[in-house]
TrEMBL record:
Residues 7-231 form the NAD-dependent epimerase/dehydratase domain. This is NAD-dependent nucleoside-diphosphate-sugar epimerase. CDD domains: TDH_SDR_e (cd05272). InterPro entries: Epimerase_deHydtase (IPR001509), NAD(P)-bd_dom_sf (IPR036291), NAD(P)_epim/dehydratase (IPR051225).
Length: 318
């Protein structure tokens, strides 16, 4: 059951945005989604196919104006810097991630709109329990990305309790997809590897052997957003943000999964110390039980099923 009618999406040209726009336009109709981004959707046919407006999320007035003019009832705020880029440009990351979120929450408050913006496994830190990380636990991240994610979770809860804004969120693991590349994340190796497996039959991993991180295939991530947005609010004990994950693996596991389809595929390592440091501060695997119990989170792709689909879909594209 879809109860959203008109959704404004920021960061619509990003890895999550372009697939969420596509899904919600199928569910709500072309005009049901106002896609926005700081750049033009050149070549992105899905986003170009319906309403699109240029929006810098630092500009709160412009965001409110677009939302008002289009009578939106839901704000999905995705524009943010990811972990590796945020660590290179921490001042920019704080300004963009926090100001953008604040402007989006204010827009939702003023228009009484529903609200979704993702958190991340990056919200956890080195003294968080590493395995089966609980929903409610120690959160002392050591990256600027993580700092903005924890602050964002708290701010979204504040807008719910103080102003009654219907804020909802998930802690995304690394997201793997074939339509739009991620930009500047620590988990990006798990996307790059499929491209290189098809192009070169080999891959040099910038993440070290033995580094386990949570991951999810994009169709499950998109389903999770739609499901949480449509969840019965009376069942939500948590809001910002739910642990969700579909699998946890290290580089050797994804290599072996690809080798089941491309036996000659080879992998070696040239570890990037900056991204490795970030990965080492994150959990090995998080516990999604509360998301399962409160709104029925249920991913359908495991590692092998994802590898098969990724390689099938990508081979027609590259
Ligand atoms: C990143 O690596 O920065 C993101 C994330 C896990 O939030 N993919």
């Amino acid at each position: 059951m879809i109860i959203l009618k008109k959704v404004l999406i920021t960061g619509a040209l990003g890895q999550i945005g372009s697939e969420l726009v596509e899904r919600l336009r199928k569910d709500l109709g072309e005009n049901g989604v106002i896609a926005t981004d700081i750049r033009k959707p050149e070549g992105n046919q899905t986003v170009e196919s319906g309403p699109f407006e240029i929006l810098d999320v630092n500009d709160g007035e412009a965001m409110l104006d677009i939302a008002k003019r289009n009578n939106v009832d839901t704000i999905i705020h995705l524009a943010a810097l990811l972990s590796a880029v945020a660590e290179q440009k921490p001042q920019l990351a704080w300004n963009l991630n926090m100001k953008g979120l604040y402007n989006a929450l204010e827009t939702a408050r003023i228009l009484n709109a529903k609200f979704f913006s993702p958190s991340s496994i990056g919200a956890f830190g080195p003294n968080t329990p590493k395995n089966n990380t609980p929903q409610d636990t120690i959160m002392r991240p050591t990256t600027m990305y993580g700092v903005t994610k924890v602050a964002g979770e708290l701010l979204e809860d504040y807008y719910f309790t103080k102003f009654g804004v219907d804020t909802r969120s998930v802690r995304f693991p690394g997201l793997i997809s074939y339509k739009t590349l991620p930009g500047g994340g620590t988990t990006d190796y798990a996307v790059d590897i499929y491209y290189e497996a098809l192009k070169k039959k080999s891959y040099t991993s910038f993440i070290a052997e033995g580094t386990q991180m949570d991951m999810m295939y994009m169709p499950d991530a998109i389903d999770a957003v739609v499901k949480l947005l449509n969840a019965d609010p009376s069942r939500l004990i948590h809001r910002n943000s739910f642990n969700i994950t579909a699998m946890s693996f290290e580089p050797e596991d994804i290599k072996k999964s690809i080798q089941k389809i491309i036996p000659e595929f080879k992998m070696d390592y040239d570890v990037d110390p900056d991204r490795q440091k970030i990965a080492d501060s994150w959990p090995n695997s998080i516990d999604p039980t509360d998301a399962q119990n409160e709104w029925g989170f249920e991913p359908s792709y495991d590692l092998d099923k994802m590898s098969k689909d990724m390689l099938d879909k990508l081979k027609d594209r590259i």
